[in-house]
Structures are given as C-alpha cells and as structure tokens.
Design a protein that fits this description.
The protein is of the alpha/beta class. It is built from 20 helices and 11 strands. The protein has helices at residues 2-13, 16-23, 43-52, 54-64, 121-131, 151-165, 176-188, 192-200, 218-233, 254-260, 273-286, 293-302, 307-324, 330-341, 349-360, 364-368, 374-390, 395-401, 406-422, 424-438; strands at residues 27-31, 35-40, 69-74, 83-84, 90-91, 101-102, 140-144, 171-175, 205-209, 237-242, 264-267. The strands form 3 sheets. A 6-stranded parallel β-sheet has the order 6-8-9-10-7-11, sandwiched between helices. The longest helix is centred in the last third of the chain and has 18 residues, at 307-324.
C-alpha cells in the first residue's frame, strides 16, 4: 500500500518522536489512481499537518507513485482509542507516554465564564486565538497584571478549550516554580535529557505562569530560554504570565527577557466600573442572590482591582443573608464590604479615574487618548486634579494613568485650580465629585 511506503520513507526523514506524534496517527481512508485521502484525529492536528508536513507527504508520494493529489481531512464520528502506559495511565493515540503535564484546572475558568471589558479585551482575544490555532496574534503571548485580574482564568480557559477541541494536543501547563523544581530534580537524578525532551520534542503548547518568580534563578532562566527559542521558532504555541511587566522584571537575563517578549505583550488592567458591574451581576446570579441594581452599584463602587475580593464579598453577603433568613440588601452588603476594606473605600488613582469616566460618560481609552476635545480634556484634567488632591501618587505616576508626562499633569492641576476660583459651575462640579469620593 502506498501510504505504508510513504510512512516508511518519512520514518527515515523525521525524528522518532516527530514521526510518532504527527505521522503515525494519520490513516489512509481512500486511495485510487489520482487521490490519496488521509484523515487525522482533530481540526488542530490536521491544520498543523497541512502547515508543516503536507508538502513533504506530497513530495514523497510523487517519488513513490503516480498520485496526483494528497488530501487531508478530519476523521468524522470516530471514537477516540486510548492506549495505556506501564503505570496504567490512559493517553490519546499518537501522544508520547508522560508527554502531558497539567496543573489542576478550575472548572469555572473557561472563556464563557470570563467577563470581557476594555481592561482585558486584547488579552482575552489573544488567548482565544491561541486556543483555536488562529495565528492572528502570533504564537507567543506574554500577559502581565497584578493579582486577581484574570491571568490564571484566561490561561486555564485556553487549556479547557484545547482539551475540548483538540484533545490530542500535547500540553505542558505549569508554574515557573514547578518548572524550576522539576529541573533541579532532573539535575540531581541525571535525567536532564528526558526533562528537555518533554518540553522540546513532546510539547505542542507550553503555558508557564508566574514567570516573575524566576528572578535570580539563572540556570532555570537559561534552560527555559533554550526551550522557548526552539518552541517559538518551530511555530509551537507559548503563553507566559507574570505579576510584573517585562520591563520591570529584575534579576532576569536580557536574552531571556527578549525571548519572552518576542511575541505579543499585553497587560490586564483593573476592570472599569461597567465590567465590575457585569462581573458582580454574574456572580450574584450564580449564587442565587438576584442582581438588585442598588446592591450591584454599591459593590462595584467600593470593590476595585482584585476580582477575588468581589467573590469573597458575595460569599459573605450570601452567608449573612442565609443565617438571618432575609434577602440580601444594602445594609448586609455594607457590613460585609466595610469589613473587607475598612470603614470606607480606599481612594486610588484608578478609583478616581473610574468615577470620572462614569460621571462624564467617557471611557478609559478616551481618557488615555490624545484627544483634545473639551468633552475629554476637561474630565481628564479634573481626574488629575483629584488624584493629586486625594492620593500620594507622584505627578509622573498620575501621568502614566492617563498616558501623559508629569508636565501635562502639572498644567492640568493649575488649570482646574484657576477655573475653580473663577467659575462657580466648575467649583460646584469638583466639590460634588469630592463628596462622592468621600462616601
């Protein structure tokens, strides 16, 4: 049979692991004088074959026979056949034993459960594309944000999606600390060859969280840098996350930093008011608490940043209303939330920005834009004035919030101060905003 002859030829041209992973699972469904029809186990698998190996298969077929065309399609309605390794661990066909490494997954960390807003739209879009094999955003993604803003949710959503749509994909999903610990074990047990093989030969997609924990670990950085170099150049998909932006990572080798940021780099900002409100409504309904507008508004106004605090607050509200056998109301919400954050909400640059955006009906993107429209410049200047008044943030850091330098911030503060002394309407607006911030 021609397909068997082609496989024999390819076995000599490819490495054993590459042949076993990508060629062996292919099956011949039909062969006649002009067509050789091959089938693969899933859509991603076939897309990878078409991109990397189909020309080689066609060339080999031409050398061995008179086939005019080699076609590739996804097998339909074929149940997955599982093999078993020596430990009895079930694995998919074509997947090397021990080739998959996954952290435990949160069942709710899926794309459907992720609330999208301006603060995370790019990160979510890039993750969704990588999960489906779409190369629109490239094949390497670096995500950074402070804790509780959704890095792990998005990373695990990718894993859930890939396991569902392309289960034969060889995934390696772990933290940087786990990677470091495994490498140390490999050195101690003289098994570094197997360690490297797992991430180079037996890996279609690598996801590593908390890269910032590798600061100062030069050997680990060097090993991961080598792996990233191979994976990225060979078109494999890579997702890295960090609590710190790449430029602010200390104790990181410059070559390693450059490699990590060779693809798309995006931060996840604190969710704006509208996104927080949607998250709160969603979680209240999940807990069977309804979604009263007054309750949602109060929580959204007072809990910013870490989304985990929203979850904690809602659990607390549910517990107190259940114990008292009364519906959740504003008084219970205040009791729970003030217990979390103190007697009143902390005033931050981001909370002031959110209030201004909500009050003047301008988006964060508009406040950070280069627009010179009065409808944008006035709210921006008021926001800068209030940030200087109520926080200890430097002029430069205030400028960073609005994509400006410190001199622009200084000008804005002087302008609003002057307008307040000359125009009653401006003074009353600012005083009203001050009162809202103090609530």
């Amino acid at each position: 049979m021609l397909w068997n002859a082609i496989k024999t030829s390819l076995r000599g041209a490819l490495s054993e692991s590459e042949f076993g992973l990508w060629i062996k699972p292919l099956e011949c469904q039909r062969q006649d004088n002009k067509v050789l029809e091959l089938v693969g186990p899933d859509r991603f698998f076939c897309a990878w074959i078409e991109d990397r190996y189909l020309d080689l298969i066609r060339h080999t077929a031409e050398e061995l026979g008179e086939i005019a065309d080699v076609q590739l399609k996804v097998v339909e309605n074929k149940p997955l056949q599982f093999a078993s390794d020596q430990r009895g661990q079930l694995r998919l066909p074509g997947v090397a034993s021990g080739g998959v490494r996954l952290r435990s997954l949160h069942p709710s960390f899926t794309f459907d459960q992720f609330m999208v807003g301006e603060s995370n739209l790019l990160a979510r879009s890039a993750c969704k594309a990588l999960a489906t094999g779409d190369s629109t955003f490239g094949n390497c993604l670096f995500m950074n944000s402070t804790t509780g803003l959704g890095k792990s949710h998005l990373t695990q959503a990718v894993v859930h999606q890939v396991l569902h749509s392309a289960p034969s994909t060889q995934l390696q999903y772990l933290t940087a600390q786990q990677f470091s610990a495994e490498m140390v074990k490999g050195i101690r047990t003289h098994s570094m060859e197997q360690f490297s093989k797992r991430y180079i030969n037996d890996c279609d997609m690598l996801l590593v969280e908390d890269i910032h924990t590798l600061t100062g670990k030069n050997k680990t950085q060097e090993e991961l840098n080598t792996i990233l170099d191979y994976l990225i150049k060979s078109g494999r998909r890579v997702i890295l996350t960090s609590a710190v932006a790449p430029s602010k990572l200390v104790g990181i080798d410059d070559d390693f930093r450059s490699r990590m940021t060779s693809g798309l780099v995006t931060g996840i900002e604190s969710p704006d008011y509208e996104t927080r409100a949607r998250i709160i409504r969603h979680k209240l309904r999940l807990h069977g608490l309804g979604a009263d507008d007054e309750l949602v508004g109060f929580i959204a106004d007072n809990l910013r940043g870490d989304v985990r605090r929203i979850e904690s607050a809602i659990i607390g509200i549910k517990a107190k209303s259940s114990l008292r056998n009364v519906p959740p109301d504003l008084s219970i919400a205040k009791e729970v939330i003030y217990g979390l954050i103190g007697s009143s909400a902390e005033i931050t640059g981001e909370s002031i920005r959110d209030l201004i955006g909500k009050q003047f009906r301008v988006s964060i993107d508009e406040l950070r834009s280069r627009s010179r429209k009065r409808s944008v410049t006035f709210p921006r200047q008021v926001a800068m004035y209030l940030t200087r008044k109520y926080t200890n943030i430097s002029l430069a850091d205030i400028g960073t919030i609005y994509n400006r330098d410190h001199s622009t911030v200084l000008y804005a503060i002087k302008s609003i101060t002057k307008d307040m002394s000359r125009q009653i309407s401006v003074r009353e607006q600012v005083e009203m905003l001050c009162a809202k911030l103090k609530k």
